[in-house]
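queue> pop job 88
queue> type: inverse folding (structure -> sequence)
queue> payload:
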């Protein structure tokens, strides 16, 4: 599917959820996940985590990492490494954050969805709600020219409870000044979908890139 066709298809799908031109302004805000939704970061994330695990003497395979998609590393590292202490978790997380910059060239924007975001950003409130940490997340946004497109950004380190808890989405809605009934979330993972639904949002599921 070409970029133009993909953009129009995204617009059609959103139209099935909400009439964006309705005079009552029923759709006021669009809330987007980052990893896997707006940008394909799977390979970059895996390689950075693989090397971070290795620096701490642990192995991380693609198969094991695939089970963590959409989850916060504060949650999945202890699951992958039973018995690891909090300091060990923090060490891996810090190493991953340092290593990630070297993998940014492996990330790819979802061209159709980004084109749609650029189309609607001038007329709708927009938010990014991600489990990514702010340091790495900002690198992704800057690398793909997405930073100016959001009115509100909520990173994983801005919340206490990560997806599937709705805290991030609830925080974004509060900052946007919009009720959940007037918002639409875009998510690729089951974890993210559950978080958005728990916040009262309608969710449009984005196929894996």
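queue> result:
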């Amino acid at each position: 599917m070409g970029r133009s066709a993909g953009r129009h298809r995204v617009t059609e799908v959103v139209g099935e959820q909400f009439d964006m031109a309705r005079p009552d302004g029923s759709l006021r805000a669009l809330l987007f996940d980052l990893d896997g939704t707006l940008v394909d970061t799977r390979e970059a994330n895996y390689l950075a985590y693989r090397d971070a695990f290795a620096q701490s003497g642990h192995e991380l395979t693609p198969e094991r990492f695939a089970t963590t998609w959409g989850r916060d590393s504060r949650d999945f590292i202890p699951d992958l490494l039973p018995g690891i202490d909090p300091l060990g978790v923090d060490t891996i997380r810090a190493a991953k954050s340092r290593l990630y910059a070297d993998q940014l060239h492996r990330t790819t924007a979802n061209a159709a969805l980004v084109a749609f975001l650029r189309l609607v950003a001038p007329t709708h409130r927009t938010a990014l709600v991600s489990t990514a940490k702010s340091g790495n997340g900002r690198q992704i946004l800057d690398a793909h020219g997405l930073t100016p497109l959001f009115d509100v950004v909520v990173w994983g380190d801005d919340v206490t409870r990560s997806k599937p808890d709705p805290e991030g989405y609830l925080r974004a809605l509060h900052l946007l000044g919009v009720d959940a009934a007037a918002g639409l979330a875009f998510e690729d993972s089951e974890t993210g979908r559950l978080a958005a639904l728990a916040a009262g949002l309608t969710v449009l599921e984005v196929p894996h890139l």
